[in-house]
Task: structure prediction
Amino acid sequence: MTTPSRTVPGFINAHTHIYSALAPYGMPPAAPPPENFVQILERVWWRLDRALDERSLRASARLYAAESLLYGTTTLIDHQESPAFIEGSLDVLADACQEFGIRAVLCYGATDRNGGREEGRRGLAECRRFLRANHRPLVRGVVGLHASFTCSDETLHEAGEVARELDTVVHVHMAEDRADVEDARKRGYEGPLERLLATEALPPGSIMAHGVHLEPSQVRMAESQGLWLVQNPRSNEGNRVGYASSLWVSGRVALGTDGWEADMPREFAALERLSAGSVHEEVDAAARRLVTGRVLAAERFAGAPGEPGLEGDQVVYAAGEGDQPAQVSRVTVAGQVVVDQGRLVRGDIEELRAQAREEAQKLWPRMAAL
Ligand SMILES: [Zn+2]
Result:
């Protein structure tokens, strides 16, 4: 039996972390093993991000951009953190995305967690600098915040101010774990969504990753404010934070991989598996999340003169034999062929993997020393 060749719109990865692309190249396990979400952050990701420098970030970005295209993903909505290399970090990501021809929406996730308000200010300044300077046709900037629980009210408010000043939106983690909700309550707010709204940190169109611990009424409120939510089912399962069961009440929910490889059909398969036991409204809504992601991407790429739009972003699957999974054969972004006959057009994937391996070997000792 042969399956015919077919063409589908390019996939959107609506929340990811390009900076973690070296992790599959031998990142040592956390010791002692983390027992909860905050320990996972403290012992793994908040050590990795502090160990990143320009070279390791460039190797991550070039590998992740290239591999994403090979999976048929044509837009990445990224959330960057590298506290030892803040200024200029977004240019490293943007250059890699433009080099291989993938669309990207970039931000630096400002936080006060290592260096207080000054660190938060530097993160927001990097967003502002990048938003003003970037003219790469495939790349857009937004303003980033790590999450409510690692930011002061002042940093949250300033993020909203910068976004309004530059006519853009904010990208932030929202109620990923119960710890985020508890932190907001301790500060006197109903929850992190209410805190971000009270500090005017969320202009309409802003992007909130996760929403695992939001109530349906809160998800409805987010939709009424024009806000996006992004579900990341494999990450939520891996971090044991729960299933985001309230998201179906909003029509503005997309799908992301939260740092996992940008294989959207695979992420979608995980979503189907994990949503299977949910109410039928959730199962129906989950089925639309890849499509909805295209609406989110179109919002961020709208309005620029000469912008070719998203209709030029396509994936052709080769005709297949028997039970073989469909193979990505050709990918076009903004009308340009960037993957042809299953191969990257503007680079050699094996060379990029070799560079990633080399940088990873230097990264793990730095991470261990922190
Ligand atoms: Zn994330």
